[in-house]
């Protein structure tokens, strides 16, 4: 791209960085969502055992570190 930009064939655009943070309304919702995720994570061994016992073991691995410890 540098060759075409230098020749005037295209212009470079630098994307701006946008930082987001939760508002006063969003923070309590996020806390409850994280609590729910934590509860599901804690119950996961029982959920998996139930799925295996009933032949429905089709759950795929997930990244379960998103909320744990971020309460």
Explain what you see:
By secondary structure, this protein is an all-alpha fold. The chain has a domain at 23-59 and 66-71. The chain is 46% helix and 0% strand. The protein has two helices and no strands. The protein has helices at 2-6, 26-53. The radius of gyration is 23 Å and the shape is elongated.
- End-to-end separation in angstroms reads 45 Å
Radius of gyration: 23 Å
Order of helices and strands: HH
| Structural class by SSE content | mainly alpha
Low-confidence parts lasting 5 or more residues at pLDDT below 50? none
- Overall shape: it is elongated
How much helix is in the residues? 40-55%
How much strand content do the residues show? under 5%
Number of helices: 2
Indicate the multimeric state: single chain
Counted beta strands: 0
Largest sheet: none
Give the averaged pLDDT, no decimals. Answer: 79
Describe the structure concisely for a colleague.
The chain has helices spanning 2-6, 26-53.
């Amino acid at each position: 791209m540098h060759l075409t930009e230098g020749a005037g064939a295209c212009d470079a655009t630098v994307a701006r960085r946008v930082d987001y943070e939760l508002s006063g309304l969003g923070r309590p919702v996020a806390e409850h969502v994280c609590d729910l995720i934590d509860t599901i994570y804690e119950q996961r061994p029982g959920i998996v055992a139930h799925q295996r016992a009933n032949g429905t073991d089709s759950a795929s691995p997930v990244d379960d570190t998103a909320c744990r410890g971020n309460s």
